[in-house]
Design goal:
Length: about 150
């Protein structure tokens, strides 16, 4: 059983890399959209969407593998760092859904608000990275809050 647990921890860490790493691609994409022509903009927007979709799928693997670790591992679900992580995870889902998808859908409809929308995308990306880094800290340090 130990090999299975280790395998899931490995998958969990790999999906954590997949959930955080590609987010840094969003910044060069955003600054290219700011400078680019409208043709290039469509391509860049679809690259942006592809990246957020990749991050979302990696996030699903992260949650599922995390839940398996709780079910089969030594940490009960009521451990304080697990509960805080779960709470932050819910917040992140709201961020990805409302912060990215809604703004991306507004792009073709509101060309006059392009700069405001790009600023929103940039802020959402940083907030999301911040949340993931806090969760990474909780996972590695496993602090006890109560
Ligand atoms: C649903 C949310 C999550 C649950 C239930 C969960 C659960 C767990 C558990 C139980 C472990 C302990 C493995 C062990 O040391 O035996 C672990 C390790 C780890 N988790 Fe999560 N996790 C979640 C989300 C995340 C997130 C969002 C990240 C990163 C952004 C992350 C990154 C890590 C890392 C890097 C480790 C390895 C830490 C170490 O071995 O010291 N996890 N996770």
């Amino acid at each position: 059983m130990q090999w299975f647990y280790t395998g899931i921890v490995f998958l969990h860490v790999l999906s954590a890399v997949g959930s955080v790493g590609p987010l840094f691609l969003l910044f060069p994409i955003i600054s290219r959209i700011q400078k680019g022509s409208s043709v290039e903009q469509t391509t860049l927007l679809s690259l942006f969407k592809w990246t957020t979709r990749f991050v979302m799928h990696a996030g699903h693997v992260l949650v599922v593998s995390g839940v398996i670790l709780i079910l089969i591992g030594p940490w009960p679900w009521y451990t304080s760092w697990v509960i805080v992580t779960l709470g932050l995870m819910m917040l992140s889902i709201v961020f990805l859904a409302s912060g990215f998808s809604t703004v991306l859908n507004r792009f073709p409809k509101e060309p006059e608000n392009r700069d405001i929308l790009l600023k929103k995308l940039k802020n959402t990306s940083w907030r999301y990275i911040g949340l993931l880094v806090i969760m990474l800290y909780l996972m590695v340090v496993k602090p006890s809050f109560w």
